[in-house]
Amino acid sequence: MPSTHKKVAVRTRERGWLCGHLDPSRLRLQGRVQWLSLEGQLNELPAAEVKGVFFIPGFDVLPTLATQRPAAVRPRLPGLWVRVDYPDGDNLYGLLANHLTELDGTGLFLLPPTPTAPFQRVYVPRDAMVEATVLGVVGRGHRGAPRGAQQFGLFPTPATTELTAPTSDAQ
Questions:
Q1: 18-70: per-residue pLDDT in tens?
Q2: Do residues 119 and 65 lie in contact, with contact meaning Cβ atoms separated by under 8 Å?
Q3: What percent of the residues of the chain are helix, what percent strand, and what percent coil, each to the nearest 5?
Q4: What is the full DSSP assignment across 54-112?
Q5: Residues 6+ away with beta carbon under 8 Å from 126
Q6: What is the pLDDT of residues 137-160, one digit of tens each?
Q7: How far apart are CA 42 and CA 118, in angstroms?
């Protein structure tokens, strides 16, 4: 199997969780999601029936992934903190990269909001979601000058400048 195939758990609307291997470059093709099952069968579903394609480190995390509810915890990594709403009222929280190359119109790649999440990232097809709401912009934080530090001046301030009357040398 090529190294481009990643371990995934596909969350569907009707059938629950399905495990297998997937080529991430084929996710954005023609509104369908294809993956190779653990038995070696090629599975394919319309993107509207897939709630998310979860990239996982191993198949042993599936029980944790299936029982864990999404936490509305503000993440610490930089990016856009979003909530994806599904037609059945379910939702998913994640972190969207803060650059335009991730927004291509077919779906969203989200990072988990907490570092202890059992998945590495998730792909949510656009056809599967009702709405994606930005909850906040998480940045690296602005580090200003430490308190008590003086800023040096490039130009003299009016308090230190002596004003002298112009002299007339034309006499």
A1: 889 988 877 766 778 888 888 889 988 888 898 988 888 888 877 776 666 65
A2: yes
A3: 10, 35, 50
A4: EE-S-GGGHHHHHHPPPP-PPPSSSEEEEEEE-TTS-EEEEEE-SSGGG--SSEEEEE-
A5: 47, 105, 106, 107, 108
A6: 887 655 555 555 566 666 666 665
A7: 25
**Alpha-carbon distances of 138 from 5, 54, 75, 135, rounded to whole Å:** 31, 23, 7, 10
At 46, phi and psi to the nearest 5? -65, 145
In angstroms, the Cα distances linking 141 to 17, 61, 77, 82 are 38, 33, 11, 19
Which of 99, 95, 128, 97 lies closest to 27 in space, CA to CA? 128
| Spatial separation of the C-alpha atoms in residues 57 and 102, rounded to whole Å | 22
Residue 53, token pair as written in the block: 């394609």
Q: Which residue has the tokens 């002298």?
A: 164
